UniProtKB/TrEMBL annotation:
It comes from the Bacteria. Keywords: Signal. It comes from Neptuniibacter caesariensis. GO terms for molecular function: electron transfer activity; heme binding. This is Cytochrome c domain-containing protein. Residues 1-22 form the signal peptide. The keyword Signal applies.
Length: 109
């Protein structure tokens, strides 16, 4: 392989590598706060609702929360994603779950 070709291969490898990494809590944070959905919530129509419209931080910290494992956390994020028609891809759901886990749930993975 020529020197130039091996540099190109190296660049390709390093730019593709992050895709195989674990979920990214930083981009999850952005997704979580910046997603906009249209939704009627208790009779009020929102064109710019997001996750925070229904969930304050305390919601994830209440003693009777439903999420008790990391797998359940991902399932609930996916549930709200589907029910609300948010349109996140599975990678986005993983990123948001990683963010919520870092901030609130703190499960071992
Ligand atoms: C219209 C209101 C609403 C919005 C907006 C909403 N959710 Fe939910 N979410 C709920 C309800 C209701 C539950 C409880 C479901 C249950 O108890 O079965 C829930 C539960 C959850 C839980 C589990 C909480 C726990 O620990 O018990 C997570 C995680 C979650 N939602 C994530 C999200 C994310 C991420 C978004 C943004 C896409 C979002 N939700 C937007 C209504 C909402």
């Amino acid at each position: 392989m020529s020197y130039r070709a091996s540099i190109a291969a190296l660049i390709l490898l390093t730019s593709v590598a992050p895709l195989s990494n674990a979920a990214d809590a930083e981009s999850g944070k952005e997704l979580y706060h910046e997603v906009e959905i249209e939704r009627t919530i208790r009779g009020i129509e929102y064109t710019d609702a997001n996750c925070v419209t229904c969930h304050e931080a305390s919601f994830y910290q209440r003693s009777d929360r439903k999420v008790t494992t990391y797998a359940k956390l991902e399932a609930f994020v996916e549930g709200c994603n589907t029910n609300l028609d948010v349109g996140w891809f599975p990678e986005d759901v993983s990123d948001v779950a990683a963010y919520l886990n870092r901030e609130y749930y703190k499960f071992e993975k």
